[in-house]
Amino acid sequence: MRTVNAYAAVSATEPLVPTTIERRDVGPHDVLIAIDYAGICHSDIHTVRGDWGPITYPQVVGHEIVGHVAEVGAAVTKHRVGDRVGVGCESGSCGECEQCRKGQEVYCLNGNLQTYNGADVDGTITQGGYSQAIVVNEDFVLKIPGSLDLARVAPLLCAGITLYSPLRHWNAGPGKKVAIVGMGGLGHVGVKIAHALGAEVTVLSRTLSKQEDGLKLGADHYYATSDPATFEKLAGTFDLIINTVSARLDISEYVNLLAVDGTLVVVGAPTEPISVDGMSLIAFRRSIAGSANGGIPETQEMLDFCAEHGILPETELIGASQINDAYERVLSSDVRYRFVIDAKTFA
Ligand code: NAP
Ligand code: ZN
After folding, report:
1. Quick one: 43 and 150 in the same domain?
2. How far is the CA of 17 from the centre of ligand 1 (A)?
3. Beta strand 221-224 with 200-205: parallel, antiparallel or unpaired?
C-alpha cells in the first residue's frame, strides 16, 4: 500500500477537503500512474452531492485522469515506465461476458468497475483522480498520443468518449444534421468531434451567450432554446440530437426537432424520468436512446482520432484549493469549458 494526497468529499453538503488515501500495491497486471492532471466532470458533482443516491464518504472523485506510468507489475505488457497514459470512467469489468469480449466493457453484463465510487473486488470503494497517483489494471489504461497537450487532454477520457461513441454509433458524418444540446464540458467537445466527422453541426444552448465560441469550435449553426421560435424553425430537421444537459429538459420539444428516422440520444444524466408523447415518435419513426461513455478500444480510437484532427478540450487549469469554487462555477454554467486540476497542487 502507498499513501497519496487527494481531495475528498466528506458529505453531500460540505466542501471537498484535502486528505490522504491508500493505493493498493502494484499487482502483476497493474500500472501505477503518477497523475499529472484530472478533469472535473459534472458527474463528479452529481455523485458527491448524492444526486444519484447515497454514497459512502469520504469519496475521491475524478474520472478524467492523465499522467505518467511510474511503475508496472511483472506481467504488464501494454505500458512502460514513463509512458503518457490516461484512465477514464471504468477501471475494470468481468472480461468474460459478451460485451466485454466485444470491447464494450462499459456495458459489461456483470457490471463494470467505476473508477470512483465503485465496489472493488477487495471490498473497498474505488477512489478516483483528484489525487497524486492511482493503480489500475493495464487493460483499462489508455495511451495518450504524443501530440496532445497533457494539460488539456484529460477531459477527453470522459467528455470526449461520451460524445464520440454516440456520434459514431449513429453515423454522424457528411450529409448528416447533428444537434448538440448544451454547450458545456461534454457539449463543446461534441461540437469539435462532430465537425471533424464531417457532420453539419448545430448547437442548441439556452442563450446565445456562447455563440461566438460555438461557431469557432466548429458549429455551423447556433440557436437559443429560450426563444420559442427556435423550436418552430427547426422542427423536423435533425438526424441526430445529443442531449448533454445536466438538468431536466422537456424532451418532447426536442423530439419534434428530429427528422424522419432521427434519433435523440440522452447522455446528460439528471435523475428525473423522461416523458414523451408517443405519437411524436410514431408519426415520423423517431427514436430515443441513451449512451454511456465507451469501451476501451473505442476510447483509444477516440484519442487517436483527436490527435489526428488536433482536437483538444477548451480548459481552465486550476489548483486543488480551487475545486470547490470550480464546482459552484460548473453548477452555474460559468466554465469555458472544462476545469482541469493540476495534480502537482495535491502535494
Ligand atoms: P456541464 O459542463 O455543466 O454542461 C451541462 C450543460 O447543460 C451546460 O453547459 C448548459 O448548457 C446546460 N444546462 C445546465 N443547466 C441547465 C438547465 N437547468 N436547463 C437547461 N440546460 C442546462 O456538464 P457536463 O460535464 O458536460 O455533463 C453534462 C451531463 O452529462 C451531466 O448530467 C453528467 O453527469 C452527464 N454525463 C453523462 C455521461 C454518460 O456516460 N452518459 C458521461 C459524462 C457526463 P447551455 O449553457 O449551453 O444551455
Ligand atoms: Zn464524466
Report:
1. yes
2. 25
3. parallel
